[in-house]
Amino acid sequence: MSWEPHTLTTRETVDPGPVAALSALFDDGTPVVGPGDALPPLWHWLALARWPVSSVLGADGHPARGSFLPPVELPRRMFAGGEVAFHAPLAVGSTVRREARVESVTEKPGRSGRLVVVVVTIRLYDEHDRLAVEERQDLIYREAGAVPEEAAPAGPAAALAPAGAPFAREGEGSWRFATDPTLLMRFSAATSNPHRIHYDWPYATCVEGYPGLVVHGPLMTLALAEVLRLEGHGAPVARMRHRNRKPLFCGRPALLRRIDAATLGVFGQDEEPHSTLAIEFGGGAGRA
């Protein structure tokens, strides 16, 4: 299949529906974001989510590759990280112009086999045609993991039990982050993310070889960004750099806590973070 990168330009509405959905999903007591309000950092991932038509979806639930994204054959897709610069606020309910382009496609060896790194850039312009958001997204495609010989059961009870509100303070600068299948399903719906590893247990375990449902990379990153609102940081954010280092699985214990003055991380049961978020406030680097 011949494929060439191209710029995809669309005009879209900053949708208040998914914004309200994220407020309800987080259920953390922070002010509800509504029409006319400025989007909190990274909430454009929901407010400008795009729904692909059913006929273009592939076996993993994502749109079949070879149109906007390159025709990479490796089955595992991961949102590995990126960087976002915030130049002007986006108001809920406003209309924006989005320009998206694949900047590079790089194949390289990895610890678990061959992988392909796809870099996508996105620019969002507000109603006055001012550049509001510049973003780089790093997508990684990898080979599938080993799968069990027999069909996986529905999953251990701990991974299926209702988690309740996902945030709970665990001490100074530390928050518990709890997940369950309902939370993952609701986030998939709010972000129009049909990737089956987040809601289809047999697919995640028997096809892609994961030990359970995978917590979305953007959900971990948004949870880290939400700590700013939970702790009452009012300074404008100039830039965020995020990186998803390893999967977090549904129902596993996790904490959101500081790594240093300007960096937050999602931690499981060891000292290696699953995801990190580095924050710069307006006028230069500041405390997270």
Q: Indicate the percent of residues in helices.
A: 10-25%
Q: Terminal Cα separation, in Å?
A: 46 Å
Secondary structure tally, helices: 6
The gyration radius over C-alpha positions equals 19 Å
Series of secondary-structure elements, N-terminal to C-terminal: EHHEEEEHEEHHHEEEEE
* Mean pLDDT over all positions: 89
Low-confidence stretches: 284-288
* Proportion of residues in β-strands: 25-35%
Q: Structural class per helix/strand content?
A: alpha+beta
Gross morphology is globular
Count of extended strands: 12
Overview of the molecule:
The chain is α+β, with helices and mostly antiparallel strands. Helices cover about 15% and strands about 35% of the residues. The chain has helices at about 15-25, 45, 155-160, 180-190, 200-205, 215-230; strands at about 10-15, 75-85, 95-110, 115-125, 130-140, 165-170, 175, 235-245, 255-260, 265, 275-280, 285. Strands 1, 2, 3, 4, 5, 6, 7, 8, 9, 10, 11 and 12 form a twelve-stranded antiparallel β-sheet that branches. Helix 1 packs antiparallel against helix 4 (about 180-190). The longest helix has 14 residues, at about 215-230. The protein is globular, with a radius of gyration of 19 Å. The model is unreliable at about 285-288 (pLDDT under 50).
